[in-house]
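Render this sequence as a predicted structure.
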Amino acid sequence: MLNEEKLQQLALKLFEIDAFKFGDFKMKVGINSPVYFDLRVIVSHPDVMDTLTDLLNEFIADKKLSQAGGHLCGVPYTALPLATLVSIKGNKPMLIRRKEAKKYGTKKLIEGKFNADDTCLIIEDVVTSGSSILETVEDLRSEGLVVTDAIVVVDREQGGAKNTEERGVRMHSLYTLSYLLKVLLEAKRIEESTVKAVAKYIEACQIRSDGSFMHGNGTKVVNELTRVGMTFEARADLAKCPLAKDLFKLIATKKTTLCLAADLATSEEILNIAEAAGPYICILKTHVDIVSDFSEQFVRSLQSLAKKHKFLLLEDRKFADIGNTVAQQYGGGLYRIAEWADLVTVHSLPGQGILKGLKATIGDKPATLRGVFLLAEMSTQGALTDEKYATATMKIATEMESDFVAGIVCQGKDVVTSPGLLQLTPGVKLEEGVDTLGQLYDSPERVVKERGADICVVGRGILNSKTPSEMARVYRDRLWEAYLERVSGDKNGSEKNG
């Protein structure tokens, strides 16, 4: 029987050396995952390699798999060091499977001494769909070897065991993902919310041997494993920013993805449009530095309307300076933005320091939920924000200050892959085109379904209307219908002309 304490200690050690981590990661199978395993790092930790090897040999003995494996074969290439040590410590002969047969010499695909009908036990590090194990099994069997069992360090529990069993290979795992989550939670290394988010992902993402994705209930997944295919309710659980969680829920409850850009010059105009459009929006976006009569009374009135109609306030400040400066701009001066704006826009150009400066202004006030939208792309012709800039922005958003970043301002759906982040896209109008200053406009349907917008910014399309309230309702309905078509997989839903 394996030593439970030793198993748990190794699990914690693997987490400490970043052999697995939590975030948003692109997987080999083509989807994004909230957890990523990289057991290649253990080669730099001899003590971990030694402990893991001992446990694997004990596991083989415990499962009585010695007869199933006269030989050992590690799945290339990550499992090769492990298989080598297991072979040496367990005194069992080893075979090496090449990914491609040599084009010279013996031209062998399987290296080592063996006979037809010899048995071989597979060693693998991490299994998702089991495809790498099955590729190795196929090559071994083609040489006449008998393969019935595989030992893996971690089973991600996404269908690998079932897929290999269908091909006559029993999979035995030292760890399962759910066991590792349990150990980390009990050791207070992760939060309960992380466990729930990963569990939800596992349930929604079972991978069949043909590469298709299935729900845990057996129904085929069409579009739900990508950000744009998931519902706002499901994505709320995956958001790391507390304010983003609330915003996801607000959008889902109020059934609106409309952000109104209230770019007006007087307090009265802004308050009037907020009252008129408030029932139909999730966010009101301001530029307070163009308000000629800004006052504390204006802020209080705006906050009152936001509470009444259930929308958030986004100050489109586009902070773009060093941390110390933005901290003063955010918390001080005439506008004291941090006191009333739920969200602000921020350029990622200064790097991570700009977010640290903004967060320092808020401190650890639990009653004050605040968040930012990082700018990755702009909607004007000739903007200098290229693909490299957008990629760097996403790295800041997902790896550095993820609990403060609610979303990304961008123009294309491929920029934001994490379902826990919101894509905010400006430049939405019933009639597409370009204004005299280079602002690009797209239809609600195109912005939501083709460009992946979660929240759509509309300004003059509502502000210049004779009936702003009615026009806001029209935009809300068009945008929400496009969202429903997007998550249902109807990418070819007919566009309506305004």
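Summary. Residues 220-225, 433-439, 491-498 have pLDDT under 50 and may be disordered. The first strand starts at residue 20 and ends at 26.
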